[in-house]
Amino acid sequence: MIETLALDSIAAIEPSHWNALHFGGNDADELEDWSYLHAIEGAGLRDFRFVYFALRENGKLRAAAPAFLTDYRLDTTVSGSLKRVTDAVVKLLPRLLRIPMLCLGSPVTERCGIGFDAAATEAQRASWLDALLAKMEVTAAREGCGMLAVKDAPVAQDALWRRVFPQRGLRALPGLPGATLDLPYAGLDEYLATLSPATRKDLRRKQRAAEGLKIEWRDSLDGVREAVMSLYRATLQRAEFRFEELTESYFENVLRGMPGRALIATYFEGDTLLAFNLILENGRRLLDKFLGMDYSAMDRYNLYHVSWLENVRHCIARRIPVYESGQGLHREKVRLGSTLHANTLWYRHRNRFVDGVFARVDKLARMDDGEAQCA
Questions:
Q1: Is the Cβ–Cβ distance between 340 and 154 less than 8 Å?
Q2: What's this model's pTM, rounded to 2 decimal places?
Q3: Domain for residue 375, yes or no?
Q4: pLDDT tens-digit map of 112-146
Q5: Are strands 343-349 and 262-269 parallel, antiparallel or unpaired?
Q6: Do 36 and 185 share a structural domain?
Q7: What is the per-residue pLDDT for 28?
Q8: Which among 97, 100, 98, 94 is positioned nearest to 146, based on CA atoms?
Q9: Is 370 a domain residue?
Q10: For position 374, what pLDDT does the model report?
Q11: Is 340 within 8 Å of 179 (Cβ atoms)?
Q12: Strands 60-73 and 49-57
């Protein structure tokens, strides 16, 4: 007997059962696991409500995925002069560019974590995924959501997505790629030797310029809480694309809820905090979740590249073989030796007429610029 559920809290599912499912082709100790999602759920992210879709067969959890409800701004991925126009429109008509949306995935994970029983066949995965989407349709109707979407579906699983999503009317748009850097090196110099001479020279210069910084790794916000949130808000204001706004509770909950796996690297000039970096890690991967910085200090310290080199050093020292640096700045990450991994956004509007309009103009919403190659 198959049962599909839409749950209000991930606490309704046993952590070990959730984590036993395979996420995105990775093994069961995915960093953005039950603990991370539970931390997000209690973080009070404004304008988001979370739901969790689960499928049980004869009482056993076979598939599950996080999801969220929000009012989606259609100009979220718009920038430049067009963004100024849409901002002006929203001030006059606040609801015009907003559509209630139900989306598989999470606003603060790197990819859509749809988990399946490890022993499932491809046919079972497709069948279970279709059943989850059917439950999603029912939930969207109940919640009055016009838009259905899947955020950051990894292209590595494209065969499954293309087998199921189009049957439900979902269309694909390229999303922002993620980036990983393999680090099979004995030291930082060995990593630098793999880069082009120009890049190597550039990084060494930036590394020397930052020798006056004090770098500390912490497992809590104690002593830096206000400074961290001030840097976060300043960084958010400069972001080209803004989807979610994190809260102090987000940082607190992640650090508290993932002991030994969540850390924050801090960068001080004297007693002044200039940058912080929230990271998740285990024995096989370090995941860079958020970098906040004082942009007025960029000319002195090149904080982005300093934090990059510190994360590489940290990984090598702890024999962590993969540094995952997330989305954004993908051309620079390729220059620094990373491999890109493509993601896809799938969507449709539940109103056929509106959906037909979106189908004709969706190229305007593309987030990739066609210049980077993904694995």
A1: no
A2: 0.89
A3: no
A4: 989 999 899 999 999 999 999 999 999 999 999 99
A5: unpaired
A6: no
A7: 45
A8: 100
A9: no
A10: 57
A11: yes
A12: antiparallel
